[in-house]
Write a structure and sequence with these properties.
Number of strands: 15
Strand content: 15-25%
InterPro entries: DHS-like_NAD/FAD-binding_dom, ETF_a/b_N, ETF_a/FixB, ETF_asu_C, Rossmann-like_a/b/a_fold
Mean pLDDT: 85
Protein name: Electron transfer flavoprotein subunit alpha/FixB family protein
Family: Belongs to the ETF alpha-subunit/FixB family.
Region (Disordered): 1-23
Organism: Gluconacetobacter dulcium
Structural class: alpha/beta
Radius of gyration: 26 Å
Distance between the termini: 64 Å
Low-confidence stretches: none
Order of helices and strands: HEHEHEHEHEEEEEEEHEHEHEHEH
CATH architecture of the largest domain: 3-Layer(aba) Sandwich
CATH class of the largest domain: Alpha Beta
CATH superfamily of the largest domain: HUPs
Shape: globular
């Protein structure tokens, strides 16, 4: 024993902490009497542009009123091509909120409703693009976006670069000859981009000004006799979407014992059910529900994991998932490190609590 008084660092910090302020401020002498740091709310700055030198358009498939990872990448690519002098107009195939579009980098926003008629939408897109005379028009190289891009290019006569793998203001690079070669050329008027080829916009928020929506596509009854008539588009029932295509997956791991509540929660959330390999091996969930390298690799927007530790092969199945929410009692579990939001608690306590909240909201 030295007789030296031991000091508690936590208590010392609390004694020296100045009240208020956005960041911790310490008075080392401990004299904080009368010292208060005022909290000044930060004003969000928004970049506005009225008359850009030119326009670049991004045609985005909206998902539940928002932009998914692919959509934000398209707008980010348009923002890169527009530079400081150009403007970006986002044309949403579905409803898109102006603030979400502005954060993604769009200066103007137009929406097109009723995109279930592929014959009518390209004409509406041409009408919307006309006043802007865009230097470039970007589409996703998806089943819907790729089809519309080729229809617009064929109708307008604009040159098209499909499936561009690398893009900058000077050139676009895309594979050719079965992927054995690359073709480098100046950026065409119409460009389609696969997912994860361009980073989303991360700069100052843009205005995202909502403009008057375009007219809806012509109804199938107005099409000539002998044409293909499409029926109404119906949403798949909750949980009926295949695991590999589901936008929202709720998954159970070894930490889940109350599967009745788990199934009820998945139905209430409208999510597709998944599971870890341990759960499927035990016969508690069907093998088709297994998530991971030896099961299904997901392409979901959100993955909610209950009681899953996060084995390497399981995490390999989450490579394309945009948002991961983990519920686990182990703070140091691998799934916690992968998650964007974590709840360190028992799944058996969290599941009924979420279910009760959903029932209160009438879900």
């Amino acid at each position: 024993m030295t007789g030296r008084i031991r000091r508690d660092p936590r208590a010392e910090r609390s004694r020296c902490l100045v009240p208020g302020g956005e960041r911790p401020r310490l008075a080392r002498d401990g004299n904080v009497a009368g010292m208060v740091v005022s909290r000044r709310p930060r004003e969000a700055t928004v970049r506005r542009i009225e008359t850009p030198a030119f326009w670049v358009a991004a045609v985005v498939e909206a998902v539940d009123g928002g932009l998914d990872r692919w959509g934000r990448q398209l707008v980010g690519a348009a923002r890169m091509l527009a530079g400081t002098d150009g403007g970006v107009v986002l044309i949403g195939l579905g409803d898109v909120a102006g603030n979400a579009a502005g954060e993604a980098g769009a200066d103007r926003v137009l929406t097109v409703g009723g995109t279930d008629d592929p014959e009518a939408v390209p004409g509406v897109l041409m009408d919307l693009l006309g006043p802007f005379a865009p230097r470039h028009v970007l589409f996703a190289e998806s089943r819907v976006g790729g089809d519309f891009a080729r229809r617009v290019a064929a109708r307008s006569g604009w040159p098209i670069q499909p499936g561009v793998e690398a893009l900058n203001v000077r050139q676009g690079i895309r594979p050719c000859r079965g992927g054995r070669y690359e073709r480098v050329a100046a950026v065409a008027r119409v460009v389609t981009l696969p997912c994860d080829r361009v980073a989303p916009y991360a700069g100052e928020a843009r205005e995202g000004r909502m403009l008057e929506a375009g007219p809806p596509p012509a109804s199938p009854s107005a099409r000539p006799v002998g044409g293909v008539v499409l029926g109404p588009v119906a949403r798949a029932p909750a949980g009926a979407v295949p695991l590999s295509e589901a936008p929202f997956v709720v998954s159970a791991g070894q930490g889940v014992t109350d599967f009745e509540t788990f199934h009820a929660l998945a139905r209430a959330l409208g999510a597709t059910e998944g599971a870890s390999r341990v759960v499927c091996d035990a016969g508690l969930m069907p093998r088709a529900a297994q998530v991971g390298a030896s099961g299904t690799v997901l392409d979901a927007r959100c993955y909610l994991a209950f009681g899953i530790a996060g084995a390497p092969q399981h995490l390999q199945g989450l490579g394309k998932v945009e948002h991961v929410v983990a519920v686990n009692t182990d703070l140091h579990a691998a799934i916690i490190a992968r998650a964007g939001l974590s709840i360190v608690a028992d799944a058996q306590a969290v599941m009924p609590a979420l279910l009760a909240l959903l029932r209160e909201e009438g879900a």
